[in-house]
Amino acid sequence: MNWIVRIIVLSLVVGLALSFLDIEPMGILHDTWDTVLDVFGLFAGVAEWALPYVLVGAVVVVPLALVAALLRYLGRR
Asked: Distance of CA 24 to CAs 29, 33, 45, 56, Å?
């Protein structure tokens, strides 16, 4: 019960400070959503850039890994 009172008082203090700085709750929500969208856009850009290199590397790495796995399997028999 004590922590509920602390949360309410802290919320009041932060709300007053934000109001004093002329920051509105909808502005925070809007800016936060834009930031989330920008981060997803950044990850999508990185994935779009990296995907061709991953595919080219996989052409070499996957067959080598399969051969190594086959050799390990045959070596255990």
From this structure: 9, 15, 32, 49
